[in-house]
Amino acid sequence: MSSRWPTSGAAACLLAALAFAAPAARAAAPADMSGEWEMTTMLFGSPLAERMTLAVENGKITGTSSGRPVTGTVEGDRIRFETKDRDGTVNSYEGRLEGGKLSGTATITQEPWGETPRLSWSAKRPAAGKPAAPRTLDYEPKDFHRVFSAQIDPVLRIWPGDTVRTRTVDAAGVDAQGKSRVLGGNPQTGPFYVEGAMPGDLLAIHVKRLRLSRPLAISDDGLVSRALTADYASEHKDNDFNNVVWNLDVAGGVARPAKPTQKLEGLAVPLRPMLGCIGVAPGFGGAAIRTGDSGRIGGNMDFNEIVEGATVYLPVGQPGALLYVGDGHALQGDGELNGNALETPLDVEITVDLIRDKSIPAPRVENAEYLMAMGLAGSLDDAFREATSGLASWLEKDYGLTGPEVATLLGPTIEYEISEVADRNAGIVAKIKKKYLPPPAPPEKKK
Amino acid sequence: MSSRWPTSGAAACLLAALAFAAPAARAAAPADMSGEWEMTTMLFGSPLAERMTLAVENGKITGTSSGRPVTGTVEGDRIRFETKDRDGTVNSYEGRLEGGKLSGTATITQEPWGETPRLSWSAKRPAAGKPAAPRTLDYEPKDFHRVFSAQIDPVLRIWPGDTVRTRTVDAAGVDAQGKSRVLGGNPQTGPFYVEGAMPGDLLAIHVKRLRLSRPLAISDDGLVSRALTADYASEHKDNDFNNVVWNLDVAGGVARPAKPTQKLEGLAVPLRPMLGCIGVAPGFGGAAIRTGDSGRIGGNMDFNEIVEGATVYLPVGQPGALLYVGDGHALQGDGELNGNALETPLDVEITVDLIRDKSIPAPRVENAEYLMAMGLAGSLDDAFREATSGLASWLEKDYGLTGPEVATLLGPTIEYEISEVADRNAGIVAKIKKKYLPPPAPPEKKK
Amino acid sequence: MSSRWPTSGAAACLLAALAFAAPAARAAAPADMSGEWEMTTMLFGSPLAERMTLAVENGKITGTSSGRPVTGTVEGDRIRFETKDRDGTVNSYEGRLEGGKLSGTATITQEPWGETPRLSWSAKRPAAGKPAAPRTLDYEPKDFHRVFSAQIDPVLRIWPGDTVRTRTVDAAGVDAQGKSRVLGGNPQTGPFYVEGAMPGDLLAIHVKRLRLSRPLAISDDGLVSRALTADYASEHKDNDFNNVVWNLDVAGGVARPAKPTQKLEGLAVPLRPMLGCIGVAPGFGGAAIRTGDSGRIGGNMDFNEIVEGATVYLPVGQPGALLYVGDGHALQGDGELNGNALETPLDVEITVDLIRDKSIPAPRVENAEYLMAMGLAGSLDDAFREATSGLASWLEKDYGLTGPEVATLLGPTIEYEISEVADRNAGIVAKIKKKYLPPPAPPEKKK
Amino acid sequence: MSSRWPTSGAAACLLAALAFAAPAARAAAPADMSGEWEMTTMLFGSPLAERMTLAVENGKITGTSSGRPVTGTVEGDRIRFETKDRDGTVNSYEGRLEGGKLSGTATITQEPWGETPRLSWSAKRPAAGKPAAPRTLDYEPKDFHRVFSAQIDPVLRIWPGDTVRTRTVDAAGVDAQGKSRVLGGNPQTGPFYVEGAMPGDLLAIHVKRLRLSRPLAISDDGLVSRALTADYASEHKDNDFNNVVWNLDVAGGVARPAKPTQKLEGLAVPLRPMLGCIGVAPGFGGAAIRTGDSGRIGGNMDFNEIVEGATVYLPVGQPGALLYVGDGHALQGDGELNGNALETPLDVEITVDLIRDKSIPAPRVENAEYLMAMGLAGSLDDAFREATSGLASWLEKDYGLTGPEVATLLGPTIEYEISEVADRNAGIVAKIKKKYLPPPAPPEKKK
Question: What are the angstrom distances between the C-alpha of B251 and each of B254, B270, C5?
């Protein structure tokens, strides 16, 4: 079967009709269950996290959960409710409030199979205690991670608005002192838990500061296969990849090959530190993703506009989002043709904001001048389709333009970047200068 | 950086020069260290497994490890040796024999960084006790796995030549009795540990028997995006995917929609049970791979020729290979256009053989009539290149043909299948009828 | 600008509002202008051909032209009428009947430019004299053509139902006697004019007989670039293409390399003569297409199922369709990997039928067992989309299936062929066995 | 067969061994045949043009023709010579000098067919009379052409170094006065014959001046299919293309929609006039190419850096090159997403230089800041390969870099543009800033 099936969106479809096992609770003064809950349903060992918002009046519940309507009743500390999926499936829950937490069971009917074993669910209130003012927090990493995973314990819990100052090792796992800290493959710093972030939200990560912490970077002297015609390849039998060491002259603002051949003497390329990786944990049911890969979660996007001043938007897939950063580049040409850019550790400072209830199909980047929609796919052609359609949708949704208006606007103004071709996903970025945009549309009403 | 870096092949390049910390051992009668070892070196927490074969004469070691030359000395229970990588890097080890096992340390020099912390290594003899005759083993699965992983404990240890009889759940995790056993997404049965299999070997899995264990299969009524032109898509606003239940008439040998529309009444498609997934654990440093994905390890290939009578070849990446099977289809059209085929649990019987020291770039399949080389890539164009070049290499290596001979032979005889387009990797299979092949070349001498 | 603009479909949009220059004709007995006309409008030197059907009652005209409504009046030998484009543009014509032919002028208003110079138009009755019974006609070619063109005079005029017996030279322009007759590049026999065929119709070409006329065929010993990974190419510096001569053993039914290497001795591949090229002239405003290319007109499709017994469907773009055949192959593997198949001249026998007012987006092929929709595009991925969507549309249109019905039917039954990768367009063919089809839908009412 | 075969490069392979029919000429004072000739051999009606350079000493000829060695003898006005192809085939010619021209015959032996009919050939001296100083020539076009063809008579003969001032109509064939002059589809001005240009040479076209000649441009309000995901397409049922008129405010330097919707009021995009088409006639045996297409000849490249100040390099395929220009855009976003850019007529001024004996695989562009190699192919993935490999080859050939040097240089410095996706070929451009280049290598010796 395809990979379409077991994603978080589809998961709700597994839940069907509830057979209440417990007898109805006796009448009692209803507990206060109104407001917001972070709910978790266990589906065969996998936690499905949802934000649920309830309003209780006279024992009657109305509300929403993951955008679906919730109806039910409260009696004393007992709660019963149903959610209805887009396809009409009704999921039913019953439980009780105890110690400020809800917990209970649900039974699924999954056609054509009928009832399946009882599921357990629980819900807790969102974390309290948001600081009065945004904080700046330092985190000195001890361990580094080679997957974007929901199973790794967060190293720091931050609130939206907070700033994190931390460090990354280079793609090979070597730190600023030249010490190997971890096996290579873009090991990451993190994850950082963002309080209040729930699936369906959007993270806005502002890259405040990216500074070189080592005077050397490592790259290669070969070209990746995706860049080679069969003719060029057949004329270059030994398209080997040998390391090239670059000296980073921070004062002069340039990188130079440490041992240039005679022809390349004098080559000096302007430094422009960037984050090769920035990603979050995959959503419900998704396996951990290796840090050489990219996708809806961000990850190893290798886009040379993720520099100081950029804001990266990533869709939240797990409670707390679980944000990772790594794979610093002193600079990178388009496409990361050598497989590696100028790989080097970085000092990183990011400020993280949360936009609730906003879904995007793929990572986005914004800076002072541009909106940028990323397309990440198995071919440049598919990445191009995703990038262009992604930018078009952005303009429709956030600026209230019609299809023909979007086309009229993009035709003369769109620009593209080829972010990378060195990994499994190729990346293309569709950009528009913000000066051409109409005023934003008022935000959509939540459905 | 790209995903090229931290793969098993490259890992050896991390090892450079050894600084012996331990004083040289006093002279003593050398222990018998000749023969074959399964060696494991820990690189920052990741085990790198290699087969090492030593010949000791007068205290001098010669041998090979992962195809690289080994030289060294034995004094009493002490061993010292070096391996030399293709790029000239020398890796040095020292250790001691104790209780039939070797263990010790190595120090890496990784240019331009100099020495890095001491690594530990160990080696044990290959398992003994191969049964006199191949066995048939039954395994009734309790748990199912949603990743192809080296971290999951094997459920059964088998010897090359053994046959395993077991069961799979369907892609949604539902078993033959209609009971949900695990979250969907092609949950797998296994892994099976094949004694003696080491990285660099090849697994040959003979599919002996695939039988339907449930009279129902589930599919969908939509077409995956990869199959749609923009025009077709724009004319089909609601390309929704709703489940279609199929009745499996084993006696009649056909599947029929359980509730056909009037137009589809009478539709009956011949049953042809196949394994959608067959895969092994990824090699050194590789993250677990979700069971919706495919690649060099095999995995979710969804190729409708993996039926009774087929042999699947997969490259071993871990000690024991760790073989998984799952995702049975009652039958499948080319490409798995609905995202799902006719998903159903199967009774599975496979016989597993081991071919030592044989590497292949991608999965291969063989049956009575054909050699079949799989291409699995992010686009059909790249999958086509891989399939064709894979079959061409196969003929060059195993049949001793030159490039022009391969071209002359394949031009008039090659056939292709589009195995699947429903997942991240598209699959194309290049085939040649075995009746056109010259006699196999004598096997290459090991280098 | 893109190639979208000047195609025949768009041409009508150039015509806007008519300014009548001529004074209204005096009242007179209206001539009989009812019935069918083959009309030609000259647009800046390019003839736009359309079938127009008129009904005249009491001097009032109703009718259709290229599917658009026609309204107007007849006074004596004078006619005035308007057609209305899909975008609302009104095109106006005036003229007179003389000697059984209509001719006159039209003036275009093309926004935002206003009136443009007067156009001339004319119309004649469809050819009469269809033979009572289908004929078999022999045509011995003298010249061969290296483009599919509307500017080449037809060599033979046939009626729907007629059979043509003729010959082709091989792709290099060499005939059955080994004589070079024309420069290579798939020179064609034809064109054949099919009486009554007009743009918007469909040609059904039944391949009755394809026989080898020379005991030698020529192929190559290299693989086309589209089939090579960069790795494979880099290991094969000299992927040269040298001719390989094949002996065609018609009695034995096989082809054998004339001078096999030792490894290929004994190689014998079954003969299966096919037409590499079958095509019609491009439609309005389209430039001639070289005979190495393919597309909506058919052309160099190199599909190894265009053998005896196949029917090829091609959309008519010009009056008479102007049908060409050539590029015989004694046999061909999938994809035509050597750039050439076993190139050889053929004796060809085809029967041509005409299906009026039926448009198809791309060539189709049918045989006793299968419906086959071709996808021809610049990449296999795009060809795949076209083939699949083309077959889906075929089933929707001709069999009255809904989108979900099509998906349900194709998922378990679809098969694919890779027809060719050797030319600018790659070709993929989507197939379904006719035994799975529901009864055809009643033909659509003409709109 | 594939399109590989009948190209100009391969054509020479048709010529094999000469059977002299004419008796040897009597001894006489040899005529002066030394120096350069423009030779034409007729192959089955198609002229194969080559530059031949001879040195005659004591009646012995040495020389080159299309890079191949020439040897022969002169006796009086009689000449005999042979050329040897790369594959060893010997082509033999005999003829006589008369009126300053050579003419004669050759016989081909084409294996395995043996001798074919006698060919005729002739040769004339390159044109004389190059002006002392470059000239500026005005050409007012009367006709416009919808193909890049070798069969259209040149409208003007210029010398290398000359400048041409002329005009283009817009892509729809409408001129500066709003008058339709020709059917749409990028009609071209030209062709211009460049004296001395022969196949194997390179044209350098300097774009000196591009000025708007009409205050209106026309575009569209739809997005081309290549830019749409199936999802986006399915949400936009009516992705129609309606004209959008733009006002060109030359004084203000911007274009504005003539009738903007409320949301797009205020939209003003900077003018940047560019040539959508610049191309030459295809080489030997090649059919005319429609002006909506692109390729090695240039053509409809729609690259928005072909503006004032750019130099375009195109390989010469025919004597005189036969240069065409057309399809002006007031400005264009990357990719030409609307199918049309802001289409408008232009006043054009170009200076044309000739670089002899220099072959390039695809069009190139250069400006003050960048070298730019174009990739034009049926998919973005293939265009990317061609662009990158094209730039890499450029650096190897013209700057004497090795493969690893090229990779080291391009990795951190390469940039890409997506030139267009609206036509059959997609275009990607690989760029490098000239400031990063080493000094050019000395030109290669002619072989």
Answer: 8, 11, 58
